[in-house]
Design a protein that fits this description.
Blueprint (H helix, E strand, L loop, with lengths): L2 H10 L6 E5 L3 H4 L8 H8 L5 E4 L1 H7 L8 E4 L1 E2 L12 E2 L3 H6 L4 E6 L6 H18 L3 E5 L10 H13 L4 E5 L4 H6 L5 E4 L7 H13 L4 E3 L2 H4 L4 H14 L3 H13 L1
Parallel strand pairs: 1-2, 1-10, 2-3, 3-6, 6-7, 7-8, 8-9, 9-10
Antiparallel strand pairs: 4-5
Helix pairs in contact: 9-11, 9-12, 11-12
Length: 262
């Protein structure tokens, strides 16, 4: 592994081997989704508690202070929307040169295993990895398997994650699921967790984050579970305690409740 990629990964993954990535890229296909209508107001109070920000170039330029010293993971795939026919029909929307100009520590792209656009998305990943290796920028693959495969099923999340690693992704973001250790064991590069199933309480979020860490994930890439919470700073601090301080779900809940009440 080249020095540049090693250095950028070291910026993203802390010395304990763990990470908390904060994604705010949802608007690239959802538009002004709830509590992300004004990105700068969502990002600013949470950024000090994140290890890196996953963001599009438009929101980075318009809504993130250039004096920010947190690493940037730049979302570079898109081209579809909630109003369109198929969210899987993505392309690469941002060049590697642009990522360099924006001082990104990594780039991120979605892949859509099990859809009509599986081939296109996987070739897009491979091409992006080729560019990333040329310039020393790691690629994070975001698994988004087709509905018909059951996107919370360990078998198919393991399939998608392994393919991403085989094509050269340095980090894989995938959903938490039951039997999550199956996904992690089959993926030879670090795995970060996206959201799990719908959670009715904060404790349920803390529980699946803790479970995933125990089963081999290096961290999380959680957005809506944090910034759509009524007390987002309390939420991110509770999650951070699990990731970096080995807190239990109940200890994270105590942190959340104490900050919420204050």
């Amino acid at each position: 592994m080249g020095w540049g990629i090693q250095n950028r990964l070291a910026q993203l993954i802390k010395s304990d081997g763990h990470c908390l990535f904060l994604p705010v890229d949802h608007g690239y296909f959802q538009g002004p989704t709830r509590k992300l209508e004004e990105p700068s107001k969502t990002i600013e109070p949470l950024l000090p508690h994140a290890d890196a920000l996953f963001v599009t170039r438009g929101v980075l330029r318009s809504s993130v202070d250039p004096g920010n010293t947190k690493p940037i993971i730049l979302r570079v795939s898109g081209g579809t929307s909630m109003a369109g026919k198929d969210l899987a029909n993505e392309g690469i929307t941002t060049s590697m040169e642009e990522a360099i100009r924006l001082n990104a520590s990594a780039v991120g792209i979605s892949i859509f295993v099990g859809t009509d656009y599986e081939h296109n998305s996987l070739v897009n990943l491979a091409k992006l990895v080729n560019e990333g290796e040329r310039y020393g920028i790691p690629v994070m693959a975001v698994t988004a398997v087709g509905r018909e495969l059951g996107k919370r099923d360990a078998r198919f999340l393991a399939l998608s994650s392994r393919i991403a690693a085989e094509l050269g992704a340095r980090v894989v973001k995938t959903y938490w699921c039951e039997d999550f250790e199956t996904v992690v064991k089959g993926c030879p590069v670090p795995v970060v967790m996206a959201g799990g199933p719908h959670a009715d309480t904060e404790l349920e979020v803390f529980e699946f984050v803790h479970d995933g860490m125990q089963k081999g994930a290096i961290g999380v890439n959680l957005g809506r579970n944090i910034w759509q919470n009524d007390f987002p700073i309390a939420m991110i601090k509770g999650i951070r305690a699990i990731i970096h301080e080995h807190a239990s779900p109940n200890e994270a809940q105590d942190i959340y409740e104490s900050l919420k009440n204050n």
